[in-house]
Design a protein that fits this description.
Elements (H helix, E strand, L loop, with lengths): L5 H12 L4 H15 L9 H12 L12 H13 L3 H9 L8 H26 L5 H6 L8
Length: about 150
């Protein structure tokens, strides 16, 4: 596949040197969760904290849309990770108030997502473009071939 899908092969090889797993992404997300939702050790002034809490009491949004609250986004990101939908988890994390604190997590999540896409691309190519090369010829029974 190196000739037909060089970028996919390169991505897989690069990611294999420093692999990222879903479990690792889940653990890292849990570790940065307080910073993402804006509840890390630095809450700011009492007035800032009170305004944030009051702002979350009432939220008006069109029916059928998902909540923009950081805690809801965090839960959705966790569910997306559990379901293997890393691209959607990335989108949720990027929309959180503490997204600036998630730089390393976002890099790892994007690497994971790109590696999965590359694997899917190679798998699809293998299914859609079967090869009749030397490996297939070697796998054949020599008794079946005639000179």
């Amino acid at each position: 596949f190196g000739d037909d899908q060089p970028n996919a092969v390169k991505t897989i090889i690069e990611t294999s040197r420093d692999p990222v797993t879903l479990e690792q992404l889940r653990a890292e997300l849990d570790a940065i969760a307080p910073a993402l939702v804006g509840r890390s050790g630095d809450k700011g002034s009492l007035w800032t904290g009170l305004r944030r809490e009051l702002g979350e009491l009432f939220v008006v949004r069109p029916a059928g849309t998902q909540s923009p609250r950081a805690t809801e986004r965090l839960e959705r990101a966790r569910r997306y990770l559990a379901g293997g939908m890393v691209d959607q988890a990335i989108a949720e994390v990027e929309a959180m108030p503490g997204a600036a604190d998630a730089g390393d997590w976002l890099i790892d999540a994007r690497r994971y997502h790109e590696a999965r896409r590359a694997l899917d691309l190679i798998e699809t190519a293998a299914i859609l473009e079967p090869r009749d090369g030397a490996a297939v010829a070697m796998a054949r029974d020599p008794a079946e071939t005639t000179p």
